[in-house]
Amino acid sequence: MLTRVRSRLYAAATARELAAHWEDKYRRLRETVRERAHREDEERATLKAQSMRRARRMPSAEALQHMLQVRTPIAQSRAARIPHDAATFQPRALIGEARRATIDGLHWWVPALPSQSAASVERMLAKQRFPYLAIAQTRDVSVGGIMLDIGANVGRMAIPRVILGDSTKAYCAEPDELNCQCLMANVRENKLEGLVVADHVAISDRVGQLPLQRAKMSGGHRVVHAGDAHDDAISVRCTTLDAWVEERAIDLTDVTFVKVDTQGSEVHVLTGASRVLSAPHIAWQIEVSPVHLRLAGTSPQALYAILTGRFTHFFDLNPHAAGDRLRPIADLAGALEYLEQGDDDLQTDVVVYRAKS
Prior knowledge:
This protein has 357 residues and is α/β, with parallel strands linked by helices. The chain is built from 13 helices and 14 strands.
């Protein structure tokens, strides 16, 4: 009897100890979970605060969109008071070749190529936007003065910059005739003649003629410098940037900004631009696409060599790029290594300039 009582008492004590052990273990586990959740909440709050600070430092594309709409009449009034540059070729009716839309209050023509389906054209029209973020990102070095837009397409960069007041005037070179016709129509219908000057020409490293390979989309046309052009390539007038500036009687002391987006011909453009490159006050925005550069018979390394020899600083317009925003030009090749990592056809734009030594 006594043995059974002792056995039961021992079992009860053991059960209490076991219960206390698991209760203590559960309490400690719960505290650990609470502490971890608290740390995660703090980390999330810190990241959110950092993100908000970064967002506040980023320029507002929406504010520029608002300003474009209220400043358009001012730009039109300014255009009406200045003489117009002579057109380099005659405009024509665009019915059947292009579509007209309204973007932020501006009448806007965009090419509708035969290679595009009706649905593709509608999607393209729905996606038409002005590059407000890129405009804002370049304001460190580009506000005021004349802009040279090399590879201007239909004026998506030049026209908003002139209206917003970032550029006093824009000279635009575009090799594709339909793109250039749309550009001229966008200038004419928005009453900006004299402020935006369109020229149907390819800017390269030579004067003469070059084949232009047209793509399925209007932004993909490219001048063929290396290899054989396709049978459907068309011949276009080409000249160097230095010769074009002289031909248009552009005073380089008034130029502050050059944008080059030529689907791989950037090295050729720079090769024919020694006089413009020698102007220390001019900043450049240049597209960097390793795939397109190689299609044009050059390479990213050739582009980097020219830029590092001419400029002192750069910044990458890719908002997700690693490292400091403003960097010495010696870092350029290393900073853009990400463009050739993976299988994607990556590209970006860099802004380069020369600081006074």
